[in-house]
Structure formats: structure tokens, C-alpha cells
What we know:
Helices cover about 40% and strands about 15% of the residues. The protein contains nine helices and seven strands, in the order E-E-H-E-H-E-H-E-H-H-H-E-H-E-H-H. A seven-stranded mixed β-sheet has the order 1-3-2-4-5-6-7, sandwiched between helices. It is globular and about 45 Å long.
Amino acid sequence: MDITINETGSATNGTALLLHGGGGPATVLPFAELLAETSGLRVLTPVHPGFNGTPRPESVATPRDLAQLYVDLLDERDLLDVTVIGSSLGGWVGAEIALLQSDRVGRVVLVDAVGLDVPEDPTVRFFDLTLPEVVERSYYRPDNFQITPSSAQQANMQTLRVYGGEVMADPSLRGRLPGATVPALAVWGAADRIVPPSHGRIFAAEMPKGRFELIEEAGHLPQLEAPETLARLVSDFVVNS
């Protein structure tokens, strides 16, 4: 199927596949530009089918479906040693990509990823929140990120519900993570009150080559609140993994 993709950068140091979360591609596109400029990576930022008014086939309805779609994309483009970076829902998709064990994927970065079922410290029930509550829980400095709802954002939320379900978690994911053998970096904002930092530590502990980094002055979207710090962590990880 055709996928809408933004591309930026020169590929001097390889290729990154940057996967957005429920807020849509606008939440990662500025970071794509920064990462390309500072790391020498060619950054591909696809729009998940169904977001921003794009078509979504019935066959693409879960993070695993998206993972297979993007691995097929890497095959079609004959890309190797790709760094997969996923934010929130995109992080869940990134974990599923790692579990497919494609030899085209060199490493994965999970940024405040949803997907884990952790009963003792659960992901907030996102769809039960009002927009002001989402903002309050998402940012270290929420006053800097007031959002005016739009019809496009509301449509994106419906697509997010399709992919993530009501609780944004898969009870089987944690038990499958030991099968993700590529180097993995879980990066979390310390002020994330959507997905607790404990989830990042679990991702890092369960993935055989996983490690964890905490960004103190960021919440659920460090690519917006601490983009330079996140870009540095990603660049160092690419060089050293």
C-alpha cells in the first residue's frame, strides 16, 4: 500500500525510521529535522495509515500490523542498519518491529512507549481524560503546550483507539520482549504521567540488549520538550551500538 512519508537529511550516517504517536506526525516532524541536522541520519517519518486523513485498510489495525508494514517498507527500499525510533504508539510499533527480527533493523529507540500491561503501575486510561487533563499529564511544563482541539485531531484520536484499544496495552507484549535481540534504548521523560517511567525500565530490562535513560525535564513527549537531549541520546546510541 502507499504510505505518506516525510524524508529529510543526507544519510551520511545511515537511515532512521521515526514513528509518531497518537498526536500524529506533527509531534515528531520538528524533531526529524533536528535529528537529521545533528546526526547525519536520513530520517523517514511515515504517517500511520488512518492518521491525518490517510486511508487505513481493514488489514492494518494493530501495532503488529504496522510493524509488518514498515518492515516491508524497509525491504522495498533495500535499507540496512536502520535505526527505528518510536514515540508513544510509535514506540509500541518499534518494539513489535524489533520482535520481527528483520536483518534490516540495526537498533530501536522507544520514547515513552505505550503497549505494556503493568497492573501495579498502569498506563493512564487515555480516552477517559479531557484534553486539559491530557496536556497536564503529558508535559513537564504543561503551560507551554496549550492545545486547541480540531476535527483532524479528533479523527486521529479515533484512529489511535483502533490501533491501541481502550487501554493502550497488549498483555502478551512483556513476555515476548526477550525475543527482541537488537540493541534497544528506552528513553522516558521523568514527568510522564501518561505512561509511567517504570514502563521504560521494564522495556529495558526485558529486552536482552536494552538500556534505559531518563530525561528529567520532560514528560510524555521529550522530542517536544527536550529535543536536543533526545537527539544527543539517539546519536550516541547509533554510534555506540
